[in-house]
Amino acid sequence: MRKDDSGSYPATDAVRTGHTRTPEGEHSEALFLTSSFVFSSAEEAARRFSGDLPGNVYSRFTNPTVRAFQERLAALEGGEACIATASGMSAILSMCLALLRQGEHIVCARGVFGATTMLMKNYLSKLGIETTFVPLSDLAAWRGAIRPTTRLLFVETPSNPLMEVADIAALAEVAHARGALLAVDNAFCTPALQRPLALGADLVVHSATKYLDGQGRCVGGAVVGDAELVGKELFGFMRTAGPSMSPFNAWVFSRGLETLEIRMRAHSEQARALAEWLQQQQAVRSVFYPGLTQHPGHLLAAQQQSGFGGVVSFEVFGGREAAWQVIDRTRMISITANLGDVKTTITHPGTTTHAKLSDAERAEAGITPGLVRVAVGLEALSDIRKDLQRGLDQLARAAAC
Ligand SMILES: *Cc1c(COP(=O)(O)O)cnc(C)c1O
Question: Is the pTM of the predicted complex or chain greater than 0.85?
C-alpha cells in the first residue's frame, strides 16, 4: 500500500512533488535563499506586483523552496492548497485570524497543545473571539457548545499526552450541520498515518517542527485545506501579516517529508512494542497508547488511522517523585518536551507541558503526578527499554521492601 492508486498514502508525492529542476540540472532540490526576486523591466515588476503576471515578488509571500514544501504537504494531506508558516503556533494563529472575525466563536477540545489553549484563552479573546473547551470524545458536549456564532471546531487527535482519540468524521458532521468548519491538528499522526481532509475535516494544521522534520532541527508549521479558505484567505493574511516559513526550514522539511512514511511506521512499531513491555512492568500502573486493545480509543484509532503513532504515556506508582526518578535514571533518552524526533525523548507533563494548568484542571485532564510521556525514537528498542528499566526496577525494588 505504498503506491497511491486507491486512496492510500501517496508515496510518490512525498518524494517527487514540488520539485521543478532549474537549468543547472540538480538532482536534489535547490535551496532558494533569497528574500526578493528581480524583474526584467519596470513593466514586468508592475505586472507581478498587481498579480497580472504570476511569479515571485518577495519571500514573505512566495519562495520556490517554500512552495515546494507546500505543494508536497498539500499532496500528502490530499488538500488543494497549503500555506507554510514560521511555527506550528503561527499556523494556528494565522488560520484563526484569517478565517474568524470579532464576535465569532470557537469550540476546542480540552487538552490540546498548551500554547493553543493559551492562544485562544488569552489572546484571541482580546479580539472578541471566544472559545469554549469541551472533552475531546464527548460528541454531545461538542454539539451543546455550538452557538449561532460558532465558526470553527478545533481538535487534536490523538491528544497529548493521554493519546485520546476523537472521531474526525463525526465532528465534521457536527460542524457542518451548524455551518462551522472543522480544523484538525495532525501533528501526532501526520498524513502518513491519518488524513483528516478525507474524513471530512476542512482544515489541517501542522507543527512541522515535530514528525515532518523528524530530526529535531527546525521550527515551522502549515495549514492545509481548499483553494478558497487556504489558497485565498489564508494566503492573503500570510502575505500581509508575514509569519512566513524560512526557505531554509522549508528545504529541511521537504527532505523530512521524503522519509515521513517509513519513519512513522517505524515509530509506531517501536511505540507499540514499548507500550506492551511497559504494561508488564511492576512499577507501572497504566499505559496510554491507542495501539493497546484496552485503550478507550483503540477501535476508533484503528478505523481512522493507519498506524498508532510514536507517543506512549504511562503512569508509575508513587506520584511525581517516582516519575522524576524514572526520568532521571535514563542515560540515553533525551529529557526534553519536544517530540517527533528519531531520538527518543522523555518528559513529565505535570511539571512541564501542563504545569500552567491548575491542579483541578490537570486532574480533570487526567494528567496525574505519576504520568511520564515518551516519544519513542528509532534507537534499538532494547536500548530504549534498558534506559527506562533502570528507574522502573528501582521503583519496583523500593515497593517490595
Ligand atoms: C508542538 C505542537 C504545536 C506547536 O508547534 P510549534 O511548531 O512548536 O509552534 C501545536 N500542536 C501540537 C500538537 C504540537 O505538538
Answer: yes
Q: Whose CA is nearest to atom 5 of ligand 1?
A: 88
Per-domain boundaries in the chain: 10-258, 261-400
24 CB burial (10 A radius; 0-12, 13-18, 19+): exposed
CA-to-CA dists, residue 165 to 156, 169, 306, angstroms: 9, 12, 13
User: Is 64 near ligand 1, meaning CB less than 6 Å away?
Assistant: no
Give strand pairing partners of 316. 284
Low-confidence spans in the chain with pLDDT less than 70: 1-7
Look over the chain and give the mean of its residue pLDDT values, rounded to a whole number: 95
Give the closest residue to 326 by CA, choosing from 366, 285, 293: 285
* Strand order, beta sheet including 203-207: 81-85, 221-225, 203-207, 181-185, 150-156, 105-109, 130-134
* 115 three-class SS: helix
CATH fold for domain 261-400: Aspartate Aminotransferase, domain 1 (3.90.1150)
Distance CA 311, CA 135 (A): 20
Q: Nearest residue CA, atom 12 of ligand 1? A: 113
CATH number of 10-258: 3.40.640.10
Q: How many CA atoms does the CB half-sphere of 172 hold within 13 Å?
A: 13
